[in-house]
Design goal:
Blueprint lengths: L9 E3 L2 E3 L6 E5 L6 E6 L3 H16 L11 H17 L1 H12 L3 H25 L4 E4 L8 E4 L5 E5 L5 H15 L2 E5 L7
Parallel strand pairs: 7-8
Antiparallel strand pairs: 1-2, 3-4, 5-6
Protein name: aminobutyraldehyde dehydrogenase
InterPro entries: Ald_DH/histidinol_DH (IPR016161), Ald_DH_N (IPR016162), Aldehyde_DH_dom (IPR015590)
Catalytic activity: 3-aminopropanal + NAD(+) + H2O = beta-alanine + NADH + 2 H(+); 4-aminobutanal + NAD(+) + H2O = 4-aminobutanoate + NADH + 2 H(+)
Amino acid sequence: MAIQITSRQLFIDGEWREPVLKKWIPVINPATEEIVGDIPAATAEDVEIAVDAARRAFSWNEGKYWASTSGPFRAKFLHAISSMILERKSELAKLEVVDTGKPLDEAASDMDGVASCFKYYAELAEALDAKQKAPVSIPVQSFKTYDLKEPIGVVALITPWNYPLLMAAWKIAPALAAGCTAILKPSELASV
């Protein structure tokens, strides 16, 4: 499978950016040991920029707070991601093969799992608003206690090399469904 990876950039604040120090890491196809492209070598400065952007997105985005949007609103995005994953399944599976060295049929199966994960959390998000505030039974009758479910803010997510897109989905989908924003740090060994 002769795929060349075009140079990647960091996706921060809704746009593609070069890393601050303009350094890159080669992407090596583990099956052939060929360099097939490169990825940005993000540094602490890049992380700061990303965290600041995620904080802004959490608290203010196009006139709305992401954290205060409804579960059904967030679910629309998660359903769209699921659909796009399935639309690009073949392309994504091939990239996963070049990135990780796994067999194509396994990578294709992983893409089904990625789409299913986003769909699952979209469905949970659709029902989330009704469960935001739930009474908690306690033995003292004169007190009322509630369990309030709300987003916590920016979450930092780190994924390993062996199931890069699937494990990213396992982390990103629930964070977005809950109303959090996220910073994803994939493995430098498999981050395409």
